[in-house]
Amino acid sequence: MEYLLVMSLSGSTMMGIYLLLKRLLKDKVSARLYYLITRAAILFYLIPLPFLKGWYRKIIWAVIPKGQMKGVQIPVRWTNNIIHVGEKAFVNDYAIVQISVVGVWLLIVCILTVRYGLIYARVRHRILLCIGTVMTEKQQSFLEVWKRKYGVRRSVILYQGQKRDQTITFGICSPVIICNRKVGSREEELLVRHEMVHIRRLDVLWKLLARLAAILHWWNPAVWILRRELERVCEYSCDEIAMEGEAGAEIKNYLRLLIEEARAVPERTSSAGWQSSFADDVEDLKERMANLMKKRNWNRYVAGMLVAALTFGNSMTVFAYRDTLHQSVPYNTPEEEVLQSLQSDTFCFTPDGAQTNVFDPLQGTEILYEKQFVDTEGNIYLYEDDGTVGVYRGCSHAFVSGTVTDHTKKADGSCEVKEYRAQRCSKCGYVERGDRIGVYKYDVCPH
Asked: How far is CA 54 from each of CA 51, 57, 70, rounded to the nearest angstrom?
């Protein structure tokens, strides 16, 4: 569930960047730039990027000397903590809550999936009603001309729609265009050009991905805003491409078609997400027409570099990913101690990115003294709690965080180690011992 939360954070951050740019730049830039940003936001909502965290960490280690890195304290109580005892696995309360939340999330995802599956079935039924004829040679040659112009290599089918049908494109691999205009007319040409832009850019696929993001992140209002904005800027940018280089008279003819297509639909049908429509929202029609009338400069390379820079900057949210903490302890460790460790608010030190085992922090660490203090850098100091360490009243203590270990070796060869949170003054050596973290017993002393 934490992966889903970070994905939602990343997508919402990108969506926030989109809304900020839209507010600052307003209508000064092409809708094609906004369309690129919304598609990048969709990818952040759908693709978990924990692997980037490892890459970025390696880059940081290569730039920053390891000696300058400090330990990081992680509260285990708010981390998925799993302790393995032989073949058994124990999880903390936080992990249990995560599992419960996943169950509720999955239930609502299933409900939404069924709902939109039914919408898909209705749209598909409508498409089948229009498929009653075979393309004529004139339609085939007409399509080939515009496929070559817009670089479309997939198979495209053009069907004659019914009299009040809206022009739409349905499908991804073998898209179907339904248009009720007279074959070979100028109106059909303009409508097909618009739909060819949708087909070339795989707009139906992007709308489907936006729908999938909305299903997965149903609780996040930002993803619903994203889906709405994607629909808008998709049509605006498609208009710009279809009418690029055309004279004013041709644009006016195109605008007239927008109005006619909007009036031809008694209700909105494009919300299914498996199709793209020429004019799918009467409310946005005025703004869409105004957008087309304004001439804006467009440079795909500059726009691509800008979106790439924004995407890279937003990818820094991968540092919010938290790894599940797995610990392995001896098979004979009492269950009571395991449960106590799961419930304690202990800390995990990760100097230079190497995570220290929380349950058994002494694993791989040399025991030099029966009582010792170990700081976050791994430095070991003798610790005596019998008052022999002098405490200087005038010392302005500079405390360093770490742990105190109390090692007791028994006659039978076993040992017991008690660990406490602690702080040590780097000036006078005074140690303040805090709460106990745990007690670790070994049948055979490994220290």
From this structure: 5, 5, 18
d(CA 393, CA 50): 49
The C-alpha torsion from 290 through 293 and 295 to 301, rounded to 10°, is 70
Q: Which two tokens stand for residue 85?
A: 């005892």
In the structure, what pLDDT confidence band is assigned to residue 350 with cuts at 50, 70 and 90?
Answer: very low
- How far are the Cα atoms of 154, 169, 173, 201 from residue 234, in angstroms, in the given order? 21, 14, 19, 10
Q: What is the pLDDT of residue 81?
A: 67
What is the model's pLDDT at position 342? 64
Partners of 372 in the beta sheet? 382, 405
Residue corresponding to tokens 């820079």: 309
Mean pLDDT of 201-227: 92
Count CA atoms within 13 Å of residue 211 on its CB side: 20
Structure token pair of residue 66: 């390891």
The helix/strand/coil state of 84 is strand
CA separation for the pair 235, 252 (Å, rounded): 17
Reported pTM: 0.66
- Beta strand 415-425 with 399-409 is antiparallel
| Ordered DSSP codes for 93-112 | HHHHHHHHHHHHHHHHHHHH
Q: How many CB atoms lie within 10 A of CB 446?
A: 11
pLDDT band at residue 71, thresholds of 50, 70 and 90? very low
